[in-house]
Amino acid sequence: MYFLRTDPDELVAEIRRTEPLVTEGRVEQVKQLVVRLKQKLSQREHRDVSLFKALQAHMLPLTNVAFNKSGSRIWDTASGTELHSLEGHRNVVYAIAFNNPYGDKVATGSFDKTCKLWSTDTGKCLHTFRGHMAEIGTLVATGSMDTTAKLWDVEGGEEVATLTGHTAEVITVSFNTAGDLLLTGSFDHTVSLWEVASGRRVHTLTGHRGEITNVQLNWDCSLILSGSMDKTSKLWSAADGECVATLTGHTEEVLDVCFDMTGQLVATASSDGTARVYNAATYRCLATLEGHKGEISKVSHRWAQHGCE
């Protein structure tokens, strides 16, 4: 396989010749991604893979794919038929997300420095969110490659606040259940806790040695949970921003983390192909879930009528 045989520096140089968006300042980051991808592919090159459906319509390289809860839009995955073409961005669309579980809207982030909100029923653009000074990465509040997060009024499509302080890309954002607090996680290895009403940064959580992959507050906002590419998860006190525990055991990057509804359990997902469940009070690993043949990208607790299972 050409990709596995070729030196990472040569691959990056080849990518730069065809992708003008990969500037000099991004070379080292792209190289790290290439090295990680080569490692993953070398572990999986002998596994059986079969083509299910080819969705063909784009004229440029595909950057992102997302499924809604039913797994059917904006392409009908059963037939491979295109349902809508969402046109309006002036540069590469880099991030997409459905409003699951409803699946009636989809958000797109683009290198044209805007986010757009679309109707999946009609394919029409409902709102365009503007304001970032660089490419947008993901949408929840919104986090961006310009190192900021922004808060938006969804009804009016207006920018409410810009949250500054990170020194690298903001890769994950998460509200608490009440919506008055926001967490941001960054490639600068830190997590920030923000007060939504004022836009004030309450705490900066430092201690991870790798990029932050996901963040979450528990139900009463007493604890903050973070996952990182450094193969660990951490629990932090939301009151003072101090780390109260480091959850270890994974042998590869932690890609996702979540609390259960009660805040008593923590689940983690990793590139090592396992998920783990920890007691949030004792920090003890209660279970290691093994059986997947590839990395686990997402983890979730099931919410029952009277609690979490």
UniProtKB/TrEMBL annotation:
Keywords: Repeat, WD repeat. Gene3D superfamilies: YVTN repeat-like/Quinoprotein amine dehydrogenase (2.130.10.10). InterPro entries: WD40/YVTN_repeat-like_dom_sf (IPR015943), WD40_PAC1 (IPR020472), WD40_repeat_CS (IPR019775), WD40_repeat_dom_sf (IPR036322), WD40_rpt (IPR001680). PROSITE patterns: WD_REPEATS_1, WD_REPEATS_2, WD_REPEATS_REGION. CDD domains: WD40 (cd00200). PANTHER family: F-BOX AND WD REPEAT DOMAIN CONTAINING 7, WD40 REPEAT PROTEIN. The keyword NADP does not apply. This is Dynein assembly factor with WDR repeat domains 1. WD repeats lie at residues 86-128, 137-162, 163-204, 205-246, 247-288. It comes from Muraenolepis orangiensis.
